[in-house]
Amino acid sequence: MKWSLLLLSILLWTDFGFAAGSTRDNWSIGFLGGITTNKQDDMNTLITRANTRVGGISTPQFTNSWEVAMFLQKRFSQSIVAIQLRPSYLFNTVSGNGGSGANAGTYSYKISGYTIMPLLRVHILESSSIKLFIQGGVGWGKLDSEIQEASASVKFSGSNYGFQGGVGVDWCFGTSGRHCLITEGNVRYLYIERNIASSVGGTFSSGANGSLSQAANGREVEIDSKDFGTTFSGIQAFVGYRFAF
């Protein structure tokens, strides 16, 4: 590990410099994909309660979600600063079976949604082949969710504003350096407290280890008489590709 750090230090001082602006790659487009550590606490609570209530279900907990993104970026001429517009799509489904009698059936929980995140990117260190950057921004997201517990089901959605920030590296190659592989990590906070039901079927269990306390068309979805929350929040680990033109 220490030899890797020493080698990186030598490269930094021989081939790199603090970014002083670039006349190249003023515009670029690209795509990213990876995982987000996206724990859905209220969904996981329902899964835990259903597992206890019906004597066991095979549905796992929410941990990581898949996420893909694309972007359009403008880097200002002779500047270390770039702005980026990044829409992304996050999705995950956990599903299983369990129960007996009237409680027997599928226990499935699903989320899918998109964010639109404008980002400010600053290139803090770069050479012709490697560009280290930090970035951050404020954006908006909308998340659709679906719950099925045996014969009871509900579809609902919500939206909110949030923010994210992170660090990454462009690994550029080719004689022009226009083709770049991207590795980046970000932390995002975008919590949706209020979700409105759009489709409801059956009746959710109540009492000890009960399920949703409110699920009615056009009304807020609730658990324990409190708003049922969903989230885009988590740590993103992305790889991708960027083309400069």
What helical percentage do the residues reach? Answer: 10-25%
Shape annotation: elongated
Which structural category do the helix and sheet elements fall into? mainly beta
Can you tell me the residue ranges where pLDDT is under 50 for at least 5 consecutive residues? 1-21
Sheet bearing the most strands, described? 8 strands, antiparallel, barrel
Mean pLDDT: 91
Count the beta strands: 14
| CATH class value | Mainly Beta
CATH topology: Porin
Note the run of SSEs as H and E.
Answer: HEEHEEEEEEEEEEEE
Number of continuous helical runs = 2
Beta-strand percentage range: over 45%
Task: Kindly summarize this structure in a few lines.
The protein has 245 residues and is mainly beta.
